[in-house]
Amino acid sequence: MSSYTVQPGDSMYAISQRLGVTLQALEAANPQVRPPAFQINVGDVLKIPGKGPGPTPSGGTYTVQPGDSMYIISQKLGITLQALEALNPQVKPPAFQINVGDVLKIPGNGPGPTPPGGTYTVQPGDSMWAISQRLGMSLQALEALNPQVRPPAFQINVGDVLQIS
User: Fold this and answer.
1) Is the pLDDT score of 98 beyond 80?
2) Beta strand extents in 71-142 (DSSP E only)
């Protein structure tokens, strides 16, 4: 697991959207943030699920964790459900049954070289978090270089061109 420091204007929902994790996974990883208000304060440090040992993609694979589904995994990793399904034909419709400990193939193999020209074109399944991890830069740096991508959703679309340097 990695960590995230709460910034002004953040909410649990906004953080989950920005980092490409489900709200439920973020809440489960941070039991100190209690319902019904889920109150967080600037400077609080939250655990971010799916970014550390165990559930992290490593060498193009992912090990299924308790509570996972194909959809949840796609959201955790910032990839499309269709891409995940295409790489794992052993997980068959209609149920797409997976079990804890199953090892799934995932697209990409971690950070790659920074594209030339200081820009990055958003690809299917990308999130700001996934792009920052792929390019080996902090999420905050990527956000600072792209003020047009606004909170709380930090919405990006396939084909958008982001500044990366």
Assistant:
1) yes
2) 103-105, 119-121
- 8 Å CB contact between 84 and 70: yes
Mean pLDDT, the chain, rounded, equals 76
CB 12 within 8 A of CB 37: no
pLDDT digits (tens, 9 = 90+) for 66-96: 888 888 877 777 777 777 788 888 988 778 8
Q: Which long-range contacts (CB under 8 A, 24 or more apart) does 133-137 make?
A: 133/51, 134/108, 134/110, 135/111, 135/164, 136/111, 137/164
- 140 token code pair: 């905050």
**Closest by Cα among 128, 156, 152 to 14:** 152
Residue-range domains of the chain with CATH: 1-51 (3.10.350.10), 53-109 (3.10.350.10), 116-163 (3.10.350.10)
Q: Give the Cα separation of 26 and 42 in Å (integer).
A: 17
Predicted confidence (pLDDT) per residue in 124-139, tens digit: 778 888 787 777 777 8
Residue 141 sits at the vertex; the CA angle it makes with 154 and 137, to the nearest 5 degrees, is 105
